[in-house]
Amino acid sequence: MEIEELYSRFQVCGTVTTDSRHCPQGSMFIALKGETFNGNAFAAQALAQGCRYAVVDEPEYARGESYILVDDCLQVLQQLANYHRRQLKTPIIGITGTNGKTTTKELVSSVLSKKYKVLFTQGNLNNHIGVPLTLLRLNKEHEMAVVEMGANHPGEIKALVQIAEPDYGLITNVGKAHLLGFGSFEGVIKTKGELYDFLREKGNATIFIQNENSYLNAIAHGLHCVRYGQASGLFVSGKLLSCSPFLAFEWMSERNTYPVQTHLIGAYNLDNALASVAVGKYFDVAPEDICEALSTYMPQNNRSQLVDTGRNKLIVDAYNANPTSMMAALENFRQVQAPHKMVILGDMKELGEASLEEHRKIVGFLDGCRFDRVMLAGPEFKAVASAYEHFDNVDAVKEALEKSKPVGFTILIKGSNSMKLSQLPAYL
Questions:
Q1: Short-list 98, 110, 97, 84, CA closest to 170
Q2: Is 292 exposed, middle or buried (0-12, 13-18, 19+ CB in 10 A)?
Q3: Domain contains 254
Q4: Helices (H), strands (E): how many in the chain?
Q5: Dihedrals phi, psi of 165, to nearest 5 degrees
Q6: Which of 21, 88, 199, 405 supports an S-S bond with 205, CB 3.0-4.6 Å?
Q7: Model confidence, pTM
Q8: Which tens digits make up the pLDDT trace of 248-303?
Q9: Nearest CA-CA partner of 147 in 116, 187, 109, 202
């Protein structure tokens, strides 16, 4: 089936699903495969649940007119998304980066929503499946779209930008993450820079860039740069006011100064906030609306959330961790004013041969912090941190917390998502 004919059927359906447990009436089911499942086997169930069509790529599952047989369902999902994007021509801002891309996506979307009807990536659906699913949610009412793109291997951003074809780009930063997949820090820079490469080839493209980031400046040649940062005279200049623990900052533009009190934890979120200010100002969102959007945004999903349990105050940042974000979180926590401070850290995953050395650097930083209590979870930390409490996994941490029952602490909880430290607030 040609993409034009498939698209006409998609237009009749109005929406797609890849989950046979969630089948909006009249939708199109696309049978994807994973390591432990074959979506083709659920096509009949999807039709029974209300889907109009089931797209499959194994002939034995195509059992009637409601089935559409294709060569590769994942490829069809991506082609359909790209074709849909081209038909609507909605302006798209593509966002990637090692740290802060989800928070920045949320902030940018909140700011733009003050003036425009905005579609944006839900949660962290930022991969080869999430990006096309996001694009297929576009409709004629949307005036702009903000699409987050993630990667842990070379070439993945290139593949995603070819699907989304963004008009504008924003790389939050580059840092040491997924080194096992990228091979090196240089591999991280090259892959994130594939967003710039696409826009450069497209021509007359605009990027929003952190002015003081030397790595990004080195690969931004040939692009129109809208600059934000802490230096004076930029498109948007900003200054940290306080972070105890919530970020307060002010931004300056055309001799006017605008103070903002946020619900974001961490001075490292200043750049993410300034990025959203720059995008908002570029697209003529009123300064007062920009400030309101940032002051009312509430972080969720274990991303720098402040939780008051009644016994302790928790800074929960357990969604992800890499050397750059871990060091930034610890540096910020060291500056937080609190009578008793404690950290619970989990291993940073996917660092390859650099893993032990990067964990050793974190432990070295901890040595100079003088926190009241340090609990480290995972084999990588255990191998380099004999001076601190260390545990094999989150269950062992739970047992220790059940016995000691800490009270009156401000506690930073941070680790890679697979360490499951997000389970700990219930024990604190």
A1: 97
A2: middle
A3: yes
A4: 16, 19
A5: 45, 60
A6: 199
A7: 0.88
A8: 999 998 889 999 999 998 899 999 999 999 999 999 999 999 999 999 999 876 66
A9: 109
- Classify the phi-psi angles of 50: left when phi > 0, otherwise alpha if psi is within -120 to 50, otherwise beta: left
50 is in an annotated binding site: no
Q: Establish whether 99 is an annotated binding residue.
A: yes
- DSSP track, 332-362: HHHHS--SSEEEEEEPPPS-GGGHHHHHHHH
Residue 97 marked as a ligand binder: yes
58/158 same-domain check: no
Is residue 249 within 8 A of residue 273, CB to CB? The reply is yes
pLDDT, tens only, 212-248: 999 999 999 999 999 999 999 999 999 999 987 899 9
Do 124 and 238 fall into the same domain?
yes
CA distance 299 to 306: 9
Residue whose C-alpha is closest to residue 147's, from 162, 159, 135, 129: 135
102 labelled ligand-binding:
yes
Asked if residue 285 belongs to a domain, the reply is: yes
Rg (CA), the chain: 23
103 is in an annotated binding site: yes
Residue-wise burial string across 201-225, b where 16 or more C-beta atoms lie within 10 A, e elsewhere: eeeebbbbbbbebebbeebbeebee
Task: Supply the range of the domain harboring residue 135.
Answer: 89-296
SS3 213: coil
Please give the distance of CA 111 from its chain centroid, rounded to a whole number. Answer: 17
Residue 101 assigned as binding residue:
yes
DSSP code of residue 303? S
